[in-house]
Design brief:
Layout: E1 16-17, H1 18-28, H2 32-63, H3 75-87, H4 89-123, H5 125-145, E2 148-149, E3 152-153, E4 155-156, H6 158-185, E5 205-211, H7 216-220, H8 225-241, E6 245-252, H9 260-269, H10 276-283, H11 290-297, E7 301-305, H12 315-318, E8 323-325, H13 344-356, E9 364-370, H14 395-401, H15 405-408, H16 412-437, E10 442-448, H17 454-457, E11 464-471, H18 474-478, E12 486-487, E13 497-499, H19 503-510
Parallel strand pairs: 1-4, 5-9, 5-10, 6-13, 7-8, 7-9
Antiparallel strand pairs: 2-3, 6-11, 6-12, 10-11
Helix pairs in contact: 1-5, 2-4, 3-4, 4-5, 6-10, 8-16, 13-16
Amino acid sequence: MPNTLGNLKPTEFIRLPAEAIIGAAVLLSLPRRPRVIIAATAGAALGALTTLNFLDIGFNEYLGRHFNIVLDWELLDDAQSYMKDSMGGTTTVLLTIGLILLAVLLMVVVALATVRVANILARHKADASRGALIAGTVWITCTAFGLQIAGVPLAADHTAGIIKVHAHRAVDTLRDEAQFAKDARADTFGSTPPAQLVPDLRGKDVIFTFIESYGRTAIEDPDIAPGVTRTLDTSTAALAKAGFRAKSGWLTSATFGGNSWLGHSTTLSGLWIDNQQRYRTVMASDHLSLTKAFQKTGDWDTVGVMPGVQKSWPEQKYYGLDKLYNAFQLGYKGPKFSWSTMPDQYALEAFQRQVHGKKRDKPLMSEIILTSSHQPWAPIPKMVDWDDLGDGSLFKAIQQSGTKPADIISDSDRSKQEYGKSISYSVTSLTQWLERYGTDDTVLVFLGDHQPMSRVSGTKASRDVPISIVAKDPKMLDKIADWNWTDGLQPASKAPVWKMSSFRDRFLTAYGSTPSGKK
């Protein structure tokens, strides 16, 4: 069985597997009891490997990578939470039970089938031995001549290859853990005195905003781009009328399709965090995050607005946030929109009402995570009059009349349409908030955390996401003039592309920070 959806076709199942020929030869040479034990064990292992192949298919479709047997088991809880928000609790429980039973049943049935085949081989040992010899000869011949059907080699050793790949990946993961812990201890700005961190931003309200799933696909895919680029052009013009200018470029994200926290942490830590182990290592370290640099100076109040956080969030300490506003602390009384706990427009208005709009002795540094463009992109909120937002109750009618997740979750074309609408909504919410509440001292940095899943972005999509810096003070954009970014909110296709992990150091350097590496 292949481990990618694109290869799941009939020709894959007419191949002659070397493992079956070798297995038959081994079973024919054994007495009854060892034969039954080895057959049952091998069959159960084959059933488990088939389950692993299904996990590989799912991870490739949603996250653009294979399943990691060391790190990824805990992500299944997140998958279950996502299904619960998208399809309801009862459906999720039934599906979860069904999948667990299917995995167990697969191992048991394949084990029984393998024992049955082994016993048949033993009862017809002479014929089975000749058959194994002929099959082995055919396999060697097919390999020697490279014989194929519809581009698929007739001779296969796929099962052994999959086991080898997963074994190497597990070993590499364990080695990477040790090496990355050493890398995280080296920090270009780790020992920089507070007075020498971002001196050119003193007095400015700095806002770092991540837009969920805002990837290059939104701007360049011909089926999605027209609506999104129109929104970016309209928003650029509206911001210019309000006195704001913008520059935009590209970052290559450390994640794809999901695991947004890996994109957030990579951007803000300056380290390449592409798996859960690296994330845990960094969160437990004293490696300087970009947001914590502002807290370290003592010259900013630092807050996080996280409408997607619905439980304790110890990462607040690593990011240097004096105050955190989660899904339950923004006063929202309206309905959820699938996974998203509240519309972005409401979250931004709550930020204004509870944080940004209040008088303070210090400027403000904020980290905001916008969630309305999170898959499954149904239903999607609509913009309402800012003065009518209230406690969000008015969104109930919008949510009830919106598209249901079940209507698009397996439809690639409709998913693309709704994805594009969700990005337009999120960008519009953010830029209208800036027009309405931004000041001469506001500096907004906003970017995507990752590309949407491959069903929307395609199997060959890059991992690039747009990033923009917006400000009224022309000096703020003059500081990044040598970055050669595109004017406006829409980066040109040939605008510079950097690794997401490079942004922290580039930003700190551009705004006057002095490197003072901690080795």
